[in-house]
Write a structure and sequence with these properties.
Length: 127
């Protein structure tokens, strides 16, 4: 199934009087849930959906715990995930402490398997 995109006009904020340029905007359509993953795995193996769901829940819970512990979690050749963030600047190193951290985010890096799959992706214009 191809990746769907729409066409969106965007103006250059540095040149607001110029006409807009048009860009492809990739649209997320549909969703895959943990249950969907478990059903698929069950259909291609001898393990039941319930057993696969238990393993997936346990695995993703461990991933969340490890990211919260500051670890970089490597999930095979599929992806890595870790915590990142930003802080306010101070004049000296001594002024930096935990309250200097202003935001925390998740850093997701696709691995070889996902990158290779995207290289083969097809695209379809919406509408």
């Amino acid at each position: 199934m191809p990746i769907t995109f729409s066409v969106v006009p965007k103006k250059n904020p540095q040149q607001p009087n110029n006409p807009p340029k048009y860009y492809a905007n990739i649209i997320g359509e549909g969703k895959t849930t943990l249950t969907d993953l478990a059903k698929h795995a069950a259909s291609v193996s001898t393990v039941s959906k319930a057993d696969i769901l238990a393993v997936l829940e346990s695995t993703f819970s461990k991933i969340a715990d490890d990211v919260a512990d500051g670890k970089i979690v490597y999930v095979g050749e599929y992806f890595t995930v870790q915590a990142g963030g930003s802080s306010e600047g101070k004049d000296t190193p001594e002024e930096i402490n935990a309250s200097s951290i202003k935001s925390v985010k998740t850093i997701f890096r696709p691995g070889k398997m996902i990158k290779d799959a995207l290289k083969l992706a097809e695209f379809k214009k919406k509408g």
